[in-house]
Amino acid sequence: MKLKVLTIPNELLREVSKEIKKEQLQDKDLQKLFDDMIETMKAEDGVGIAAPQIGQQIRAIVVTLENGPEIYINPEITKRSLRKQKGEEGCLSVPELRGIVERYQSICIKALDRHGNPINLDASNLGAIIFQHEIDHLDGILFIDRAKNVYQFE
Ligand SMILES: [Zn+2]
């Protein structure tokens, strides 16, 4: 089911989301929510989405890498490259705006998958940008907070 995506200036986008306990992943409704997040992201032509964007203040994100979209639970950045990269970003919660954001070029991520199995992965370039953007959402941070310049996009 496609869900409604919250947009600025909705204050729920500014909250710090709560960790998900491993036991909670047994919950059918939560698993359904993960499927709905993926469906919503695809319907909106996004490459990532975070739970707070659909009004759930929990630490779950979807990131699309080469193998397609995956759910990452309680994601944390454990290593950051010295090198940074600038890229254009947009956000389903910030309609019609784009901005240039500087991010780490490569990062290491620690998370759980949707079944509670530990994941450690390296992401670079676009994958690293998506992870940093989505993890920011879990802390109430939007790309417009970090962008040097923000402009209209049509
Ligand atoms: Zn976003």
Strand order of the largest sheet: 1-2-3-6-7
Q: In CATH, what is the class? A: Alpha Beta
Rg over CA atoms, rounded to whole Å, is 15 Å
How much β-strand is present in the residues? 35-45%
Overall CATH architecture:
Alpha-Beta Complex
Order of helices and strands: HEEEEEEEHHE
Mean pLDDT: 97
| Terminal CA distance | 27 Å
SSE class: alpha+beta
Low-confidence stretches: none
> Might you state the CATH topology name?
Peptide Deformylase
**Total beta strand runs:** 8
CATH superfamily: Peptide deformylase
Total of domains: 1
Largest sheet: 5 strands, antiparallel
**Cofactors and ligands present?**
zinc ion
Organism: Candidatus Uhrbacteria bacterium GW2011_GWC1_41_20
EC number: 3.5.1.88
Binding site for Fe cation: 91, 133, 137
Cofactor: Fe(2+)
Structure write-up:
By secondary structure, this protein is α+β, with helices and mostly antiparallel strands. The chain has one domain (11-152): Peptide Deformylase. The protein has 3 helices and 8 strands; from the N terminus they run H-E-E-E-E-E-E-E-H-H-E. It has helices at 28-43, 125-138, 143-146; strands at residues 48-50, 60-65, 68-80, 84-91, 94-104, 106-112, 118-124, 149-152. Strands 1-2-3-6-7 form a 5-stranded antiparallel beta sheet, sandwiched between helices. A 3-stranded antiparallel beta sheet has the order 4-5-8. The chain is globular. 28% of the residues are buried. Zinc ion binds at residues 91-93, 133, 137.
